[in-house]
Design a protein that fits this description.
By secondary structure, the chain is α/β, with parallel strands linked by helices. It folds into 2 domains: 247 residues; 284 residues, 4-Layer Sandwich (Nitrilase/N-carbamoyl-D-aminoacid amidohydrolase), CATH 3.60.110. Helix content is 45%, strand content 15%. It contains 15 helices and 12 strands. Strands 1, 2, 3, 4, 5, 6 and 12 form a 7-stranded mixed sheet that branches. Strands 7-8-9-10-11 form a 5-stranded mixed sheet, with helices on one face. Strand 2, helix 10 and strand 3 form a beta-alpha-beta unit. The longest helix has 32 residues.
């Protein structure tokens, strides 16, 4: 009993369980009990008579979530120390404010017995909101934690990852009620039976449904052969130091080692091409002409390749993201682009649109635009990359199957990726360059998040990562083939192009929208209740 009274132990226990549960390599089922210590801490804070209880809750939340954030996502430091500090501190801050908002609302509404059930509403609302604003960083959304356990989460095709987050929290809450009842001095048979039955049902029904779907699901769609290339160019020392012609020859030779006339797509990583590719004359660019010449040996094949591209505007600033040249006041946009190339037709392309806050996107441009303008005036190029609002599916006209190409960071957004399916994608490609992070948990976590997209959309996934891990993932979210990290590799597989649309693709993150509306109403109700209480106290004292 003394153990569950120690606030430090309770806080550290929850952080520890969240850390060791996280993929890849963690034991995800621990998520189903990870919050139990924290809920005992929450119970103590609710009973405390000390002043400013909500801010005390915030501090304990910050300590708990900070440990989780820093140990799980420290690897960002390898790419950008400043970005790592901001991501860890801000994400912890947001999670702590969510906990404080729940705590304050529960106290204001005097929901003692089952008030803990408010917590999932606030948390799911936060996860949804955190996927849809300028400082988006949903890496630690709870539903992501099962990425390496596809057998447990086949029902994501109906709910997306927010359904997984809800499941985690409900199981934790019901387990907490059972444990709390054991330690309670009051023995209430009816409550104990209700808690145990509810726990078993909430735990078992999703698992049973998932295992049934997993064991009976058959790959859907027509077969299509895909080659994935992992060139293994070190982004710090090699990729941008070599002439593009040399890099291009190397990656095309790798593709040719496995491609044949039956191959329909050859997939290369993010940012493989980077020299002077302007979208208004993309088909006449030397690198593109080289690829078209390469494809003459494979007339029914398309190349999908990552590239830096640019669009020139002249004296007119045509978009909010337009930047200026260092030597003259003329505007252009820079893009992170996926280009689809074949021998006959003009190239089709898609510009990355879910941009990384900071490196690729200036958050809150209406507020921070003056900083960007100062940088422009000083000859800099600080600002956001350009984007394409539509999730454009790529593929040559002769290809029977189009593909959605998620570029790096985009692959962690379920509803966003579902947009490719709505626009006709029968396959999903993920092109990325995870070499910036080194051989850390970062690239392994990123890999298994693609399994989530496969389940949500019921699409096969081909993943091309510059330094690894490249992989094929089937419609059940199973990684069927993967490459070693930091090794040159080429893999080939026949995938299946599905044209069916899942419930999740059709309706997206509906759980998040419901939770957002409900939590806002509850929070406002709590604020009103608090104002009424203060007024009553003033009346009594007057």
């Amino acid at each position: 009993m003394r153990l569950i009274q120690n606030k430090w132990l309770l806080s550290i226990s929850t952080a520890f369980l969240l850390i060791v549960a996280w993929p890849r390599g963690g034991f995800a089922p621990l998520l189903l009990v990870a919050f139990i210590p924290f809920f005992f801490l929450d119970e103590q804070l609710l009973k405390s008579e000390k002043k400013r209880p909500s801010w005390r809750a915030f501090r304990w939340g910050y300590f708990t979530f900070f440990l989780w954030n820093i140990i799980t996502t420290w690897w960002i430091w390898n790419s950008t120390p400043f970005g790592a500090i901001m991501a860890i501190l801000l994400n912890t801050l947001f999670q702590s404010f969510v906990y404080m908002a729940y705590f304050a609302t529960r106290r204001a509404l005097k929901m003692r017995s089952y008030g803990l059930l408010l917590f999932p509403l606030f948390w799911i609302a936060f996860e949804w909101w955190h996927m849809n604003w300028d400082l988006s960083w949903p890496w630690l959304n709870l539903g992501n934690g099962f990425g390496a356990y596809p057998k447990m989460i086949q029902w994501y095709e109906f709910t997306g990852i927010l359904g997984g987050s809800l499941w985690v929290l409900l199981v934790n809450i019901l387990a907490f009620f059972i444990i709390k009842g054991v330690h309670s001095e009051v023995f209430n048979v009816k409550d104990r039976i209700l808690h145990i039955v509810s726990f078993v049902l909430v735990l078992i029904i999703p698992l049973t449904l998932s295992y049934v779907i997993f064991s009976t699901y058959q790959e859907k769609g027509s077969p299509i052969e895909v080659v994935v290339v992992q060139p293994n160019h070190d982004p710090w020392t090699e990729q941008y130091g070599m002439p593009q012609s040399e890099i291009l020859k190397h990656v095309l030779d790798l593709g040719a080692s496995k491609a044949d006339t039956a191959t329909r797509y050859i997939v290369y990583p993010e940012s493989t091409l980077y020299d002077d590719i302007w979208v208004d004359r993309i088909d006449s660019t030397p690198a593109i002409l080289t690829i078209k010449n390469f494809l003459k040996a494979y007339p029914q094949t398309s190349v999908v390749i990552g590239s830096s591209t640019y669009e020139y505007y002249g004296k007119e600033k045509k978009t909010e993201t337009a930047r200026t040249f260092t030597d003259r006041k003329e505007y252009y946009d820079a893009y992170n682009t996926a280009i689809c190339i074949d021998t006959i037709h003009p190239c089709s392309y898609y510009h990355k649109s879910k941009l990384v806050p900071g490196p690729e996107k200036l958050p809150f441009p209406s507020l921070l635009r003056p900083l960007q303008d100062v940088a422009f005036n000083l000859g800099g190029t600080v600002g956001s990359l350009g984007l394409m609002k539509e999730r454009k599916a790529l593929g040559a006209p002769f290809q029977k199957v189009k593909t959605g190409v998620a570029i790096c960071y985009e692959s962690i957004y379920g509803e966003f990726v579902a947009g490719y399916i709505k626009n006709g994608a029968g396959l999903l490609f993920v092109i990325t360059n995870d070499g910036w992070w080194g051989n850390t948990a970062g690239h392994r976590q990123h890999l298994v998040f693609s399994s989530l997209r496969a389940i949500e959309t019921r699409r096969d996934v081909a993943r091309s990562a510059n330094t690894g891990i490249s992989a094929f993932i089937n419609q059940k979210g199973e990684i069927t083939e993967e490459t070693p990290y930091w090794q040159e590799a080429v893999i080939k597989k026949t995938l299946h192009a599905n044209n069916e649309v899942t419930f999740y693709v059709q309706y997206g993150d509906y759980l998040g929208r419901i939770a957002a509306y409900a939590s806002v109403l509850l929070f406002l109700g709590g604020r009103v209740q608090r104002v009424i209480k203060k007024k009553d106290l003033r009346d009594l004292n007057s």
